[in-house]
């Protein structure tokens, strides 16, 4: 003889919907926390790039007695300038291989009179000023 089951095992539709809702809420929380971590990582990357460029600018200064001017720009760290103050002891191969963009895809802003400089990233919005992820990251030499 066959025995029949009078009850069925499994989950109800309501139970499944509650579990799916909970998983969705947890996923939303994780995504939001990762978004904040990404912003922090981009700021840290920009700070590291600025520190590397500052080191290259200091080496340029030690070799040549002045910083590249605003007109010469950061490109003077890659190839020897052909206008403005011509460097007397330019390092073979340059001071960096290439000038990176900031983590938001904008060029770093460099201004110099040859004696001092300001090097900065304008943050996520690419505009001066701002707060949070749009805040400027500044590296300067006085």
Uncertain residue segments: none
Under the CATH scheme, the architecture of one domain is 2-Layer Sandwich
What's the β-strand tally? 3
The CATH topology of one domain corresponds to Glycoprotein, Type 4 Pilin
Order of helices and strands: HEEE
Molecular shape: rod-shaped
> Mean pLDDT, nearest integer?
87
Proportion of strand residues: 5-15%
Offer a few descriptive terms.
single chain, 142 residues, alpha+beta, Glycoprotein, Type 4 Pilin, three-stranded antiparallel sheet, 1 helix, 3 strands, 37% helix, 10% strand
Describe this structure in words.
The chain has a domain at about 45-140: 2-Layer Sandwich (Glycoprotein, Type 4 Pilin). It is built from 1 helix and 3 strands. The chain has one helix at about 15-65; strands at about 110, 115-120, 135-140. A 3-stranded antiparallel beta sheet has the order 1-2-3, covered by helices on one side. Strand 1 and strand 2 (about 115-120) form a beta hairpin. The radius of gyration is 28 Å and the shape is rod-shaped.
Describe the SSE topology.
Elements: H1 13-64, E1 109-112, E2 117-121, E3 137-141
Antiparallel strand pairs: 1-2, 2-3
In short, what is this structure?
This protein is of the alpha+beta class and 142 residues long.
